[in-house]
Amino acid sequence: MPKTAFKLLLLFSFSSLTFFAVLLLHLKARNVPAAVPSTAVRPNTTATPGRSGGALGPCPDVPPNLLGSLYVEFRTNRTLQDVRNLVGPFLQQGGRYRPSSCVAKQKVAVIIPFRNRYEHLTHWLYYLHPVLMRQQLDYGVYVINQDGDGVFNRAKLMNIGFVEALIEYDYDCFVFSDVDLVPIDDRNLYRCSDHPRHLSVAVDKFNFILPYATIFGGVSALSEQQFLKVNGFSNTFWGWGGEDDDMSQRISYRGMFISRPDSVTGRYKMIQHERDSHNDPNPRRVQKLRETYFNIIKDGLSTLSYTVREIRKDLLYTFVTVDVQVPAG
Ligand SMILES: [Mn+2]
């Protein structure tokens, strides 16, 4: 019967179409890079993202999808657009992410003091976004860019990052990271602990050993309470060096200790580079470190002064350009 034949034909075409659609979806799913957690979905932009289907449970203490040691390579031609294509689908504007399947343990602002290191930033974003996603953090990336070519002030930029991030969201943990440091083990959690935490303990440049016991430079994490307790960083370290040791002393003078991961988990690869211009070693840094004790309350968050020039939202980060008010002379 022609009618039955037509029905059969229709059924056949429909099932073939369905088959190809499923096949296509399957192939597309296989194209998701291994570096990105397959369970991640783009968060909603509503007030309670991912929580419309009822209350989510807390994320587990140990994130389940960590890989351990990672392969990290900087001799590539990757571009920001490559990184956007890779991790963009999982992010919200401003480099924001939160896990879709559970409530993150901590709300973490990752703060990067910055000037002119776009190539490093590309590598950093390429490696860190997937790591932070696998660590199931509710996080945002803030690049704090010093405007102009006056003397660089890393510590002041980090204070500014703390303030600007808190204006946007109720962060409870602050990770301060140099733009050229990439962890090579994702078990090194970008979270805060009972004491201020130094994360970059084993950097390849220093043959994977801690250069000295009180070091606090590179990558570190302080909770909001810990940061307030030490009045943030000093604003008065202009040029290279000292500001991290000053923070280390603030921590100890306020009765806290430095917590660290072990030397396997805390391994890092540093991007090799020439010394930046307008960031020569600060000749006053040694003398200033003798004055930390007296300066904690007189120099820090409580005396922070700056002007925001521009806040630009990229998919991969929030880029805050600031005038840090470089002193004349
Ligand atoms: Mn460096």
UniProtKB/TrEMBL annotation:
Q: From its record, what is one biological process in GO terms?
A: protein N-linked glycosylation
What protein is this chain from?
Beta-1,4-galactosyltransferase
Q: Which CDD domains has this protein been placed in? A: b4GalT (cd00899)
Which species is the source of this protein?
Xiphophorus maculatus
> Which of UniProt's keywords are assigned here?
Disulfide bond, Glycoprotein, Glycosyltransferase, Golgi apparatus, Manganese, Membrane, Metal-binding, Signal-anchor, Transferase, Transmembrane, Transmembrane helix
Q: Does the keyword Nucleotide-binding apply?
A: no
Q: Which family does it belong to?
A: Belongs to the glycosyltransferase 7 family.
Necessary cofactors: Mn(2+)
Query: Does the keyword Ribonucleoprotein belong to this entry?
Result: no
